[in-house]
Q: What sequence folds into this?
């Protein structure tokens, strides 16, 4: 390690964390104060408060930023890991192209629908065919919005559609393959019970869902479609946060 690297805060994990925290805190400070992020070697230099009210406001805002980092930095780590795997999927989309990705989805979901037609009653087949259509369209839309959309479009649309395309295949496969029920459907049911008891109790939403809906058949697919959108938004936001701290090259 060079002396210059040591002077900048060291290498390895500790040095990377220190750099990340400095970038996040600098971005926070620049919401209110000028020349706070990446200005240490500029001609004008980093802005510093002169008067007592400025110093009080500056240090108060700085302290709030460090408290926020206790929450934001773990999310940044999640974003960095998610970005790595998202880049792998995007690389596959780039190699296959939008048409290739959509064609693959049509083949996979068409096969599952045919299997359902051979094994299940008509009502179940219709529900699975509908889920297959949603997954195919979601795959195509995820590829399109990822290729042509900006950051906001990716967060609002590309990641939720990608989550839908990833979640639905194992669920629908479990609906047509009894041997997969214990691996996919039973954990899904346990998760739904946990969510109703611990998350959706606000405003008695859990009681409404229990009274009006049954978690069986295609309802499993509908549940995971509903989960995929807020999860996709969350992952999109943490990836955007990771890009702020460590811009992708």
A:
């Amino acid at each position: 390690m060079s002396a210059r690297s040591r002077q900048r805060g060291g290498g390895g994990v500790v040095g990377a964390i220190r750099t990340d925290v400095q970038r996040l805190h600098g971005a926070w400070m620049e919401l209110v104060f000028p020349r706070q992020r990446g200005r240490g070697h500029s001609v004008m230099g980093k802005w510093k408060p002169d008067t007592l009210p400025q110093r009080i406001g500056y240090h108060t805002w700085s302290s709030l930023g460090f408290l926020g980092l206790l929450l934001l930095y773990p999310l940044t780590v999640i974003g960095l890991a998610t970005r790595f795997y998202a880049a792998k999927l995007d690389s596959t989309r780039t190699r296959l192209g939008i048409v290739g990705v959509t064609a693959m989805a049509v083949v996979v979901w068409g096969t599952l629908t045919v299997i359902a037609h051979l094994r299940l009653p008509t009502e179940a087949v219709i529900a699975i065919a509908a889920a297959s259509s949603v997954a195919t369209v979601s795959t195509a839309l995820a590829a399109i919005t990822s290729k042509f959309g900006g950051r906001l479009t990716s967060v609002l649309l590309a990641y939720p559609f990608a989550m839908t395309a990833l979640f639905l295949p194992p669920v629908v496969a479990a609906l047509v393959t009894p041997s997969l029920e214990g691996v996919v459907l039973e954990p899904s049911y346990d998760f739904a019970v946990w969510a109703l008891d611990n998350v959706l109790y606000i405003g008695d939403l859990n009681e409404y869902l229990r009274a009006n809906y049954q978690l069986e058949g295609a309802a499993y697919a509908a549940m995971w479609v509903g989960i995929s959108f807020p999860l996709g938004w969350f992952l999109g936001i943490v990836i955007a946060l990771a890009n702020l701290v460590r811009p992708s090259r």
